[in-house]
């Protein structure tokens, strides 16, 4: 299949009104055609056998990049690792980052951690956000709490989307490991803005009691902002 042939197929799913809606939510360098997520996932699955040629298609449209990432996420663990750095290099918005969920990593958490750390240490916005999102989706359990704290301490929350990911991760720790989450907040290991955003996100959860939410409110840091 050629790139132009695939674009013709992809464009048949495009909706002008949806493209306009997406452009208000997603700030990306890629052109947006306006194809809905279920359709993109369907195409990724339908053309999985064309992966080797499609992975070389130009990174011109948001939808093509999304489909590439979806295809990579469906690979066995070794294939996911092979293309991980390339996949993260394609990310320039929260939606591409957060939708990149590889099922294979659930069985390889121990061996993936050093890979995530190496990626995280590069310091770019999505080189940090992606590992943080993986942590909150897959690693929030007691045995990984020390590693999670290490990532939190090393995060550059001057990046907006890293700030939001750290807040989201802390909130998930509060919800799933409440006592540890409270201790983490009490230690004030992140800046006030991220600290308070984490509390806000935790309070929004239906999984906490009224009493737990009241305690969280008492831990907010007062600022002049």
What are the main properties of this structure?
2 domains; 14 helices; 0% strand
What portion of residues is helical? Answer: 55-70%
Residue stretches low in confidence (pLDDT < 50, at least 5 long) are none
Structural class: mainly alpha
Cα separation of the termini: 54 Å
Number of DSSP helices? 14
Whole-number total of structural domains? 2
Q: Mind describing the biggest β-sheet?
A: none
Overall pLDDT confidence: 96
Radius of gyration: 19 Å
The coarse silhouette is globular
Task: Please tally the β strands and state the result.
Answer: 0
Q: Which series of helices and strands comes N to C? A: HHHHHHHHHHHHHH
Strand content: under 5%
Descriptive report:
This protein starts with a helix and ends in a 7-residue tail after the last helix. 66% of the residues lie in helices and 0% in strands. The model has no long low-confidence stretch (mean pLDDT 96). Helix 3 crosses helix 5 (62-73) and helix 5 runs antiparallel to helix 6. With 225 residues, it is an all-alpha fold. It folds into two domains: 1-104, no CATH class; 108-225. The protein has helices at residues 3-11, 16-25, 37-46, 51-54, 62-73, 77-90, 94-98, 109-120, 125-138, 145-154, 160-176, 178-187, 192-203, 210-218. It has 14 helices and no strands.
């Amino acid at each position: 299949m050629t790139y132009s042939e695939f674009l013709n197929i992809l464009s048949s799913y495009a909706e002008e009104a949806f493209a306009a809606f997406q452009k208000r939510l997603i700030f990306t360098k890629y052109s947006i055609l306006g194809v809905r997520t279920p359709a993109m996932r369907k195409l990724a699955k339908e053309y999985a056998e064309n992966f080797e040629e499609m992975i070389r298609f130009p990174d011109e449209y948001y939808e093509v990049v999304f489909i590439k990432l979806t295809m990579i996420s469906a690979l066995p663990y070794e294939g996911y690792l092979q293309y991980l750095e390339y996949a993260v290099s394609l990310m320039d918005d929260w939606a591409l980052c957060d939708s990149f969920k590889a099922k294979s990593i659930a069985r390889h958490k121990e061996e993936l951690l050093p890979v995530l750390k190496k990626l995280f240490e590069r310091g770019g916005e999505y080189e940090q956000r992606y590992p943080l999102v993986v942590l909150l989706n897959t690693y929030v359990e007691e045995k990984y709490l020390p590693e999670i704290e290490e990532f939190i301490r090393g995060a550059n929350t001057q990046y907006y989307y890293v700030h939001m990911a750290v807040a989201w991760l802390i909130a998930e720790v509060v919800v799933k490991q409440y006592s540890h989450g409270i201790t983490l907040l009490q230690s004030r290991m992140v800046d006030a803005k991220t600290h308070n955003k984490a509390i806000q996100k935790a309070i929004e959860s239906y999984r906490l009691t009224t009493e737990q939410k009241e305690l969280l409110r008492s831990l907010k840091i007062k600022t002049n902002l």
